[in-house]
Amino acid sequence: MTVSRRRLLLGSAAGAVAAATATAGATVACSTGDRPISIAAGEPDGFYIEFANLLGPLLHARVVPTLGSVQNIRAVDAGSADLALALADALDAARTGAPDFGRAVRLSALGRVYENYMQLVVRADSAVWSLPDLAGRVVSLGASGSGAALFGERLFVTAGIFLGQTRHLALKEAVAALRDNQIDAMLWSGGVPTPVLAEADRQWGIRLIDLGGYVPDLRARYGRYYNQIALPVGTYRATGAVRTVGVPNLLVTGSHTPDSAVRKTVRVLVEHAGQLVPSQARGTQYLDVGNLINTEPLPLHPAAAATYRALRG
Fold this sequence. Notes:
This protein has 313 residues and is α/β, with parallel strands linked by helices. 37% of the residues lie in helices and 19% in strands.
């Protein structure tokens, strides 16, 4: 999706809201009792936390840095966070009680907010040009507790490729390890261009490995949450026609969050879409009003569904 397309979607969102309601406030105060709500976000310099930092002030909410989807799901389930960002495949694993969670986790969705890009990164001067080239090598699959880590394990199992060593490094640690040739590749899940990766590209050069060909097998094995998407040309200096895997990202909640907070959050997602676009959102399917309600594998929270109906007429 191009920048102009994203602007078109955001313009459509604004038009739909203007036609549906005339009662929007500039900022929505949102709390659970006497305390502000909390948003389990993600790593510093990532898409999750950048989005949460834009959403938080509009809700008067506290943003909690985390390592990503799996940790976020656990936090909302335990009631230590009110809202969380999580990838659809991780949410499906939680819903079905996959080993990463140990039991079925019941959550509901407030909206599908954007498409995440899986980025398998190597040095520009690397001898690695395809996934099979990583057999026997050292790869960071993302921080423990991240959606990238869950996806990375699935990717290499699906491809039948055995790594020499798997590491689980946070974003900046992984970039430093790749720079110093301590690892051969790193997996990151986020928007494009991710600023930390763009800076690494500027200083010493990176490339992305094409993953598009693995989407059919991933879908057959794990569900239809994986989409083949083309990275915008020029995302990083060496990025030509590279395909990767896109995974929908949802804003979710558990049973601890009051309906009033859910309703106010949904209003912000729709009414303030133009204020919620991180700088990493180039090419990203982002806050499309039509897609906000497409929250598979989770049901929409009843209060969220009622709010969407009220806003759209």
